[in-house]
Design goal:
heterodimer; A: 254 residues; Rossmann fold; 4-stranded parallel beta sheet; 3-stranded antiparallel beta sheet; 36% helix; B: 306 residues; alpha/beta; TIM Barrel
């Protein structure tokens, strides 16, 4: 998931200065998990903007409907075409991906040139939960996990070193940059030790192939996902999850 | 060619001579007058001096420019420190070639502190290479005349590459494994982070076992309480002994500047004499005296080893 947090309201109000009619668009994807774009977040943002004297139109997205999926956001944007035509600005409560997909569709798909602003700061591809998350993947295009005992040094090492640890590991095996974070290379060493692979640890890993990450990366698949069959197919699993006991994962977890 | 010796530092290490090196720090300035003055004081006392590259991620005069200028004006052989924090592999390669062009004969290859720890915390950290891959690249350039991509280098540079080790690392096994990795890719000598406690160094040498690469052990005689305190608080992986810090702190009360200097020198000589005596009995090939801005302490400390 793409973790995100809401920007300070002062920054958002700064973007919206002089813009009286505002459309707020939510996101039913990742933003729902971080309470930064679900219906409640959209309602609360609307209240704040209305208190500042602005006129607000809301476009909440239902759960599992992401702004970054153009086909889905297009459906909900088109339903509010009139409000979009009349507005001075659009505030998108998603990650930067969603903001840009909405911007492009409003501009090129709907033929409306509108100022579009972000409400959130995206802070990475994270794993974990339900309340504590950790950035784990850079989406770098050349996964190195097979060489590092399943821990990504590009993401988990503060310096992104392919051959650590650096000389700055703290006494409690924490990172020199942040006393709260574990040294990824100590973790990699310990896992390799358990796996009996320390011979691999002292081999030099070649510099990362950044050529696999020429931005912006474009991507194509042959068949689009069929939403209806995916949703119906997910029902048994969803019911299993709903009625199963959940392990308590976060007790004592840092 | 592997095995060839290009610098005085490597010559003395190869001969098994006990080597002393010093440290010079270019600053945030439009000149390098201060390190040049310090270098002049150290000529004849140390074999070479490291010239720091944005230490603790404070952005200062480029260490290659400083190394060249110091060598030219004082004759002091320099060890050009080169960090991965601020340059990608292309810039590193350009700088290594530049060092060759300017006649620099030693490079100390470092990962470098994270940029967020210094005076320009919003800079984008680079770390395209790490210390190991930088050592590997330099050896490939010098020995094979090739860059990382295997492209030919016309008239390749002739210089040596050293690396760092941190005997005080909390996870000694992981640190030693990393040091062995550096040795595997061809590091020509090692210089340790500052060490204060013999037992730390003993454990490090024991864990490392016998290696063919000469090791210089780092010490840090501090010119003031402030310098030692900064080191203690901000330099990663180093704890300054509390009793040493305390005796330096007491010198803050001394009003007379000359007397204060004398007392600081006395504390350093007293504190490090024992450590230097101890070093004689270890596998250390020499001592790196990280006495930045404090060249007058080198001569009395060196005397201990005679």
């Amino acid at each position: 998931m793409i973790a995100q947090e809401q920007k300070p309201i002062e920054e958002i109000l700064g973007y919206l200065e002089g813009k009286n009619d505002v459309v707020i668009m939510g996101c039913g994807g990742c933003a729902t998990f971080y309470h930064t774009g679900d219906k409640k977040a959209v309602d609360e943002m609307a209240d704040k903007l209305e208190k500042e004297g602005k006129s607000v139109t809301k476009i909440p997205m239902p759960f599992s409907m992401q702004v970054c999926d153009t086909e889905k956001s297009a459906v909900f944007l088109n339903k509010k075409r009139k409000a979009l035509e009349d507005c001075d600005a659009v505030l998108v409560m998603s990650c930067g991906d969603g903001v840009q997909v909405a911007t492009e569709y409003i501009d090129e798909g709907m033929g409306l040139t509108k100022a579009v602003y972000p409400a959130n700061n995206a802070i990475g591809l994270v794993g974990g939960g339900p309340t504590k998350f950790k950035e784990t993947c850079l989406s770098c295009g050349m996964c190195e996990l097979g060489k590092t005992a399943g821990i990504c040094p590009l993401t988990s090492c503060g310096k992104g070193l392919m051959n650590g640890p650096c000389g700055g590991v703290r006494v409690d095996d924490k990172c020199e940059i942040d006393a709260e974070k574990d040294c990824a290379w100590v973790k990699i060493y310990e896992r390799m030790e358990k796996l009996g692979e320390l011979d691999k640890f002292i081999e030099m890993r070649a510099p990362h192939e950044w050529s696999k990450c020429k931005r912006p990366r474009l991507f194509e698949i042959e068949e689009p996902v069929n939403m209806m069959s995916a949703m119906i197919g997910a029902m048994p699993g969803f019911l299993t999850y709903t009625f199963s006991a959940k392990p308590k994962l976060e007790e004592g977890k840092k | 060619m592997p095995g060839e010796v290009y610098s005085q530092l490597m010559k003395e290490l190869a001969e098994g001579k006990y080597v002393f090196t010093g440290e010079l720090e270019p600053e945030k300035a439009g000149d390098v007058k201060e390190p040049i003055e310090a270098a002049k004081e150290l000529v004849g006392l140390v074999t070479a001096c490291n010239v720091t590259d944005n230490p603790q991620s404070f952005a200062y005069v480029n260490s290659l420019a400083a190394s060249y200028k110091i060598e030219k004006e004082t004759g002091m052989e320099c060890v050009y420190q080169l960090r991965c924090s601020d340059r990608n592999r292309m810039a590193l390669l350009s700088d290594v070639l530049g060092a060759g062009v300017l006649g620099i004969k030693n490079i100390l290859a470092l990962a470098g502190d994270h940029v967020s720890l210094g005076d320009t915390p919003d800079a984008k950290p680079v770390f395209d290479l790490d210390s190991t891959t930088l050592i590997y690249m330099i050896r490939k350039m010098v020995d094979e005349g090739k860059d990382l991509g295997g492209n030919d280098i016309h008239n390749p540079p002739k210089l040596h590459v050293g690396g760092a080790a941190a005997p005080g690392a909390a996870h000694l096994k992981a640190e030693v494994a990393k040091v062995k990795r550096k040795i595997k890719v061809g590091v020509e000598y090692l210089q340790t982070q500052v060490v204060y406690y013999p037992e730390i160094l003993d454990k490090f040498f024991k864990e490392l076992g016998k290696v063919d690469v000469p090791i210089l052990v780092g010490i840090f005689p501090a010119k003031s309480f402030g310098a030692a305190d900064f080191f203690d608080k901000y330099v990663a992986g180093v704890d300054v002994p509390p009793d040493y810090l305390k005796s330096l702190e007491a010198t803050k009360e001394i009003k007379d500047k000359e007397k204060k200097k004398q007392e600081i020198d006395r504390i350093n000589v007293e504190y490090f004499t024992g450590f230097l005596e101890y070093l004689k009995g270890t596998p250390a090939a020499g001592c790196h005296m990280m006495a930045v801005g404090y060249p007058r302490i080198i001569a009395p400390l060196k005397k201990v080893m005679e």
